[in-house]
Write a structure and sequence with these properties.
- The protein is α/β, with parallel strands linked by helices.
- Helix 3 crosses helix 8, helix 4 packs antiparallel against helix 5 and helix 5 packs across helix 8.
- InterPro entries: Carn_acyl_trans (IPR000542), CAT-like_dom_sf (IPR023213), Cho/carn_acyl_trans (IPR039551).
- Belongs to the carnitine/choline acetyltransferase family.
């Protein structure tokens, strides 16, 4: 069974060296929010629609805190993605929508870290409902939708002693994880340095609607389009 699962994983490791967090910070945007918006644009172009997206957030502020869910697919992110695909929308409008989407994402991430997320709360209610043998249509519906885009940023270094500028050969692609849904993607990404990003894109070979190599190319195109967006405004 384990061997069959392993052989069904379609993994693509993509190293993005065109730019990294240095450019993102120069745009005055959170690198994590920027990367998540790139994934939203890539997924929409790949699937032709939006889907429930999972991003892991740490809850280390709390004793025994582990993770909470951030939902990057928002009204704001969808508005920006649609603007990117609409040729009638100006680059100024697109940048404004992107900034708005990134701020919304940052606020959601901050809320999740501070114990104001919704998904662990919903899961707890679900566990209690099962214990009390109470059937709840709302919980059944809200927890039945699959995470077709499951994402997580992993830290590159666990120690401050490692300096990538002094030791560039110590850079590592790290690891990833498999897709949560049979017809979805698992994307683990590392913002490794000022000019380097790593993406581990996984999906199932048995799924006719996913292709990890194709999705990695969509991520590359999304990141390039976002860079061109800001550079087009600088030229004016």
């Amino acid at each position: 069974v384990a061997e069959a699962l392993l052989n069904d994983v379609d993994l693509r490791l993509y190293m993005h060296t065109a730019y990294g967090k240095g450019f993102m910070k120069a745009c005055r945007l959170s690198p994590d929010a920027y990367t998540q918006m790139a994934l939203q644009l890539a997924y929409y172009r790949d699937a032709g629609k939006f889907n429930l997206t999972y991003e892991a957030s740490m809850t280390r502020l709390f004793r025994d805190g582990r993770t909470e869910t951030v939902r990057p697919c928002t009204i704001e992110s969808a508005a920006w993605v649609k603007a990117m695909e609409d040729k009638t929308v100006s680059n100024e409008e697109r940048v404004a929508l992107l900034k708005k989407a990134c701020i919304q994402h940052q606020n959601a991430y901050r809320d999740a870290m501070c114990g104001k997320g919704i998904d662990r709360h919903l899961f707890c209610l679900y566990v209690i409902s099962k214990y009390l043998e109470v059937d709840n249509p709302f919980l059944n519906e809200v927890l039945s939708e699959p995470w077709r885009l499951s994402t997580s940023q992993t830290p590159h270094g666990q120690t401050t002693k490692m300096d990538l500028t002094k030791n560039p050969k110590c850079i590592s692609a790290g690891g990833g994880f498999g897709p949560v849904a049979d017809d979805g993607y698992g994307v683990s990404y590392i913002i490794a340095g000022e000019d380097t990003l790593f993406f581990h894109v996984s999906s199932k070979k048995s799924s006719p609607v996913t292709d990890s190599h194709k999705f990695a190319r969509q991520i590359e195109k999304a990141l390039l389009d976002m860079k061109n967006l800001f550079e087009s405004l600088k030229k004016k």
